[in-house]
Design goal:
The complex is a heterodimer of chains A (257) and B (331). Chain A is 40% helix and 16% strand. Chain A contains nine helices and twelve strands. Chain A has helices at residues 23-33, 50-60, 76-90, 110-122, 135-143, 165-174, 189-197, 207-210, 215-234; strands at 3-4, 7-8, 13-16, 37-41, 65-69, 94-97, 100-102, 107-108, 126-131, 150-151, 181-183, 202-205. Chain A has a five-stranded parallel sheet. A three-stranded parallel sheet of chain A has the order 6-9-10. In chain A, helix 1 (23-33) packs parallel to helix 9, helix 4 packs parallel to helix 5 and helix 7 packs parallel to helix 9 (215-234). In chain A, 46% of the residues are buried. With 331 residues, chain B is α/β, with parallel strands linked by helices. Chain B is built from ten helices and 17 strands. In chain B, the strands form three sheets. In chain B, strands 6-7-5-12-13-14-11-15 form an eight-stranded mixed sheet, sandwiched between helices. At the A-B interface, helix 1 and helix 2 of A face helix 5 and strand 11 of B.
């Protein structure tokens, strides 16, 4: 397992905390998932009020690493302000950086992302940037000081899985030493397994679990799939081939009519 | 004769008062502000009595207990409209409608022709809808005012005071129905921020509540009659600023505009914001310690669940029956 800014995680499951039917179901889903990281989004209006603190306390009580995010930020300034607030509320240097560029696809604004990543890194943050599979952007994020990359699988909340297998494979091959996390777009455990089989270090998801009829059961299903995919990658899978290759020798076998 | 002091004159307190009064108890209701108004969470209620729709995200007790609500309110206030409720989605979000249908009971699929019959102002815009025929809605402010007036004429005393329920429990039965104001006495309770708007729009007529499904911004709109509509409601964890944010307002209004562009001409009469009291499982609870009973955590289901909560309080006091939502850990 690669480490994330010096922290080695017990598994590759990062789970979001939004949209659950209730905090009790959220806690149940985390318990069944064994997820090692909880992402939590802050809105800039929150964090200064007694009532606002209760939900953060619930998240802190989950007992996992907390990765606050800047979800819903559309500008560098918004994202930077939110990151500062998150550091104060959760007492962590980690920040999942989202700078949204397009409303329909919630696609990252990669230019703003690189700029915000540079500002935050210089300010001592450890940035987890939500990006595309674009290699040039990835390179610029690394130059800006990021030590983790989080490419999307598909648009946030779409549940479409890994849309650009070629691009994601290229990314993995291009940055063999950088921890890579598939962030967004996963709908099914099989898609999470596929990401891990490609050699990604972790997956981050929220909607697929929170919007399932039984979130806790779905969380467990994802945990199993992530483990399966991770072990498959470690086991060095066979290469696919075009022709059949019999698994038992045929020569010398008696053929009966 | 049993006598009880109820602290809190919101939807929970008034329903409990009604129930105990009907069972012959001598009841007094105390609130720090007896005028119904924007200081109370109930003031901003949507007034949907929609237990089946709520089943999409709420747990089983909400669906079951909520089915008591429409008849209870009809009997006690005459403020109820039993015309069902309608659920629609924009065509690009049709998977939301499929999911909603799969997760709920008590609905039928409507064709466009049927939608046009039920709601002529929506029929051209939506090809599919779910109709929950057994659901109802009410005008919450009118319902509470009626409840309070009738209680007064039945001899229930109302007093204005910032009272501590624990103090009243020293000398008799005390029932804490203060909602989020009881936060310091119920540490696991949290506030879930809700924002809503009241619009006036004479260009649109709706006969029943309509929910517009959306993956990020679900909206409901409840007709209050006379061209008045309630538009709600956001549900934001970890935030309870005293004001509506620009983003929430934009989202609510653009959803209304999507439902029918004529809402673009609506006038905004009121802007509401409040904290819904909720426990971690978002289900209501009753606690009892000797003479002190606390009823709280009705979350977004105040009008829907208060009648069942009131019934349980009545059964507990008069029949010694343990409520199914009893919080034993707090005893």
């Amino acid at each position: 397992m690669r480490d994330f800014y010096g922290t080695t995680l017990p598994n590759g499951f990062m789970l979001g905390t939004a949209q659950y039917p209730s905090p009790a179901i959220l806690a149940d889903a985390f318990e069944r998932s064994g997820a090692s990281v909880a992402t939590v989004s802050l809105r800039r209006e929150s964090g200064h009020d007694k009532a606002g603190q209760d939900f953060w306390k619930l998240i802190q009580d989950l007992g996992v690493h907390i990765l606050p995010n800047t979800a819903g930020c559309h500008s560098v300034k918004e994202a930077v302000t939110t990151a500062h607030m998150a550091r104060e509320v959760f007492d962590t240097k980690w920040i999942k950086l989202e700078v949204i560029g397009e409303e329909d696809t919630l696609q990252p604004d990669v230019f703003g992302l690189v700029e915000a990543a540079r500002i935050l890194t210089e300010d001592g943050f450890q940035v987890f940037p939500y990006t595309t599979e674009d290699l040039v952007v990835a390179d610029k994020l690394l130059s800006a000081g990021c030590q983790v990359l989080m490419p999307w699988g598909a648009p946030i909340g779409s549940g479409l899985g890994l849309n650009n297998l070629f691009g994601l494979r290229a990314m993995r091959a291009h940055f063999p030493e950088i921890p890579l996390v598939i962030d967004a777009g996963l709908g099914l455990p099989s898609q999470a397994a596929q990401a891990m089989e490609l050699g990604f270090d972790a997956v981050l998801l929220n909607t697929a679990v929170a919007n399932a009829g039984d979130p806790a059961l779905m969380a467990q299903a994802f945990a199993l799939a992530i483990k399966a995919g991770q072990e498959a990658a470690l086991a060095d899978p066979m290469e696919p081939r075009d022709m059949a290759a019999p698994s038992t020798p045929v020569i010398g076998k008696a053929f009966l009519e | 004769m049993i006598s009880a002091t109820i602290i809190g004159a919101g939807v929970a307190g008034l329903c409990v008062a009604r129930e105990l009064c009907d069972r012959g108890a001598k009841v007094k209701v105390i609130d720090r502000n007896l005028t119904q108004g924007p200081h109370a969470c109930s003031w901003w209620a949507g007034g949907m009595l929609a237990p089946f729709c709520e089943g999409e995200s709420a747990e089983e007790p909400v669906v079951r207990l909520g089915q008591e609500a429409a008849d209870w309110w009809a009997a006690k206030t005459d403020a109820v409209n039993k015309r069902g409720s309608l659920v629609v989605s924009m065509s690009r979000d049709v998977s939301e409608l499929t999911r909603f249908a799969r997760r709920t009971d008590g609905h039928q699929q409507l064709s466009q022709a049927r939608i046009k019959e039920l709601e002529p102002d929506l029929g051209d815009r939506f090809a599919k809808a779910l109709f929950f025929e057994a659901e109802a809605h009410l005008a919450p402010r009118k319902a509470l005012a009626t409840l309070q007036d009738r209680l007064k004429s039945d001899g229930v005393l109302f007093e204005e005071e910032d009272a501590d329920p624990a103090e009243y429990a020293q000398n008799g039965l005390s029932i804490d129905c203060r909602g989020f104001a009881a936060k310091d006495d119920m540490p696991t309770m949290r506030g879930v921020k809700g924002e809503m708007l009241i619009l006036s729009c004479t260009d649109v007529t709706l006969h029943r509540p309509v929910r517009l499904l959306h993956p990020r911004i679900p909206l409901y709109i409840v007709p209050r009659g006379d061209g008045i509509f309630m538009l709600g409601a956001t549900q934001i964890e970890g935030a309870a600023g005293p004001h509506v944010t620009a983003r929430s307002m934009l989202e609510l209004l653009s959803s209304a505009y999507a439902l029918n562009p004529a809402f673009g001409e609506a006038e905004i009469l009121e802007i509401g914001v409040d904290s819904r009291p909720a426990f971690p499982n978002n289900l209501p609870r009753i606690q009892r310690k000797d003479q002190l009973i606390r009823v709280n955590g009705l979350f977004r289901h105040g009008f829907l669940l208060a009648p069942a909560m009131a019934r349980m309080v009545g059964e507990m006091i008069f029949e010694n029956k343990t409520p199914e939502v009893m919080d034993e850990a707090a005893a």
